[in-house]
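notes to self, project folder thing:

trying the whole complex as one job this time. last attempt i did each chain seperately and stitching them together was a nightmare. two parts in total, labels are on each line so i dont mix them up again. if this works i'll redo the older ones the same way
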Amino acid sequence: DGGITQSPKYLFRKEGQNVTLSCEQNLNHDAMYWYRQDPGQGLRLIYYSQIVNDFQKGDIAEGYSVSREKKESFPLTVTSAQKNPTAFYLCASSLQPGQYNQPQHFGDGTRLSIL
Amino acid sequence: GNSVTQMEGPVTLSEEAFLTINCTYTATGYPSLFWYVQYPGEGLQLLLKATKADDKGSNKGFEATYRKETTSFHLEKGSVQVSDSAVYFCALNAGGTSYGKLTFGQGTILTVHP
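result (full assembly):
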């Protein structure tokens, strides 16, 4: 079955450490997104990519970095500069970034906590 | 800018009760509208969508109608079940330079008791 796979499901970060969250999709989608979810809040966009080797900052990009070297993969690195990284991180994809009626498909998320 | 406002939660209902979760939006142009559902510990699943005025999206007994005149997309279900307990998100895609980005409401927690 096609879908989006996020790993790991749970991740712990020590102070001063960078950690990388994996996101892989086999839906052949062009666009991919990273969101952060905090309790009682909606989703906030961190980064998005419309095509391989291209990505743009979302609303809360500070302290995060991404790469898009392959169509299927869009890893997110939470750097030590992100002072409040504890959250639930969701990866999503959509077929064509310019089509406004295309829904986004989501992975099952990674929960990141500080040790 | 674009924004989505959902009714305050949490919402607690008894099984077989009628459900309404209000959603209103602000957007330039003619956005597409979506309802997503999130079960505990999982990602979001698309519940239904509507892409133009007066469209009705429906799925699994849930319905929502795109009302341009009131800029609303309220979610309804005639008879809820315990298994409907989840968080529901209203979202819009404004198209154009938004490049497929979704704007989400804050989510509404629904709990259904037997």
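what i see at first glance: Chain B has a mean pLDDT of 93.
need to look closer tmrw
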